[in-house]
Amino acid sequence: MLNSPQLPASIHQEIQQLAKQQTQPLCAYLYDLDALEQHIKQMRHVLPKNVELFYAAKANPSAPILRTLAPYVDGFEAASGGELTHLHQQQLNKPLIFGGPGKMLSELEQAIELDVDAIHVESLTELQRIGALTQRLNRPASIFLRMNIDIGDITLSKLAMGGKPTPFGLDEGELNNALMYLRDFPLIKLKGFHFHLMSHQLEVDRHLALMQRYFQVVKEWQKTFSLDELIINLGGGMGINYQNPQQHFPWMEFCDKLEFLIAKEHMQDWKLRFECGRYITAPCGYYVMEVLDIKQNLGENFVIARGGTHHFRTPAAQNHDHPFVILKSSKQPTISHPISYATATLVGQLCTPKDVMARNQHIEQVDIGDYVVFTLAGAYAWNISHQNFLMHEPPVFHYF
Ligand SMILES: Cc1ncc(COP(=O)(O)O)c(C=O)c1O
Q: Where do the catalytic residues lie (predicted)?
């Protein structure tokens, strides 16, 4: 059952207090920055010595989140000129890396001007653009070549960005041409290779098998092409289990085993790097919707609450029932329509049947004025939502 009663006491308090300050029914994102700080500290603490941890800002680029993470991460990954500008403006004093397909000339120029730690090159065309820019600007550019490779019998995760045909990265067959091209552009420095093949990874051993594949293939390339010292960016993709929060990607176990793998593959002297998003910020966020109406329709119960997928597209994007907790309101509702020990579908205020956060959920008790608190809402939530649809007001944002 998703309707789990486990909500930290501090979140209860914050919600009740926030609700008291509102003149309208509550609709809010809450971010527990203390929890985020503890989480990133722990993640960092167990990382093998030669592994860096970057944060992929696309998961949640809000300023308080970035500032909380900055002391504990080695840098930030941007996936557009917009994200680059934003990260630069936050003055996080950490290296920036710039990835993503279809980069425009202006964005590449921006990255070179900002002197980013590395541009992740997605194609030969992009490499040519960078070559031309380094000459025109007479400025150096550091790059990683993003590669898509055959991963043999390693099983793909729920969302594969590589290991099969995708728009991401260079085909291994293009590597020789890319390296030949670099010979004519001394201002481009090849710093390493970049891989991001899986998202939503929940299986440690599969992910380790993927890491091993990266290590082996890069060592092979280094030998074949006589390449200097290289960094390997191993991507992100560590998964959150929205259906069973006890079974998120086991980061500690992964880091333990990674250390062994690094030794086994003689990678101790290599610099390795992760760029994680979801796994870092999903747990610190909560999306809260106050119940406006409860009704029966053709034999089914619907709980209609303030907000919806235009603020919180995660359940629609993932096509899942999002985990939640019902929190009793301390206010007395003027109209009451409680249901208890019933099955209900949780929806928002949009006039589309797709505005569903969770279907057919067992609910112990809910009434008008109570709060539906969606957990694991700190990544790919507000910033991936179609916020202008129907011109509803935005939610309140509360960081504590
Ligand atoms: C290139 C790249 N790196 C890192 C990430 C972060 O992935 P995740 O949030 O699953 O860790 C993404 C997400 O799409 C990505 O495309």
A: 351 (proton donor)
- The identity of residue 268, as a single letter, is Q
| Residue 351 designated active-site | yes
* pLDDT the model gives residue 5: 53
Check if 274 has its Cβ closer than 6 Å to any atom of ligand 1. Answer: no
| CA–CA separation, 162 and 174 (whole Å) | 15
Q: Is 239 in the pocket of ligand 1 (CB under 6 A)?
A: no
Q: Name the superfamily (CATH) of residues 9-31+283-399.
A: Lyase, Ornithine Decarboxylase; Chain A, domain 1 (2.40.37.10)
Q: Ligand 1 within 6 A of 57 CB?
A: no
Residues 6+ apart with CB under 8 A from 13: none
Residue pair 92/63 in contact (Cβ under 8 Å)? The answer is no
Provide the CATH number for the domain formed by 95-276 in this structure: 3.20.20.10
Q: Whose CA is nearest to atom 9 of ligand 1?
A: 277
pLDDT single digits (tens) 184-226: 999 999 999 999 998 899 999 999 999 999 999 999 999 999 9
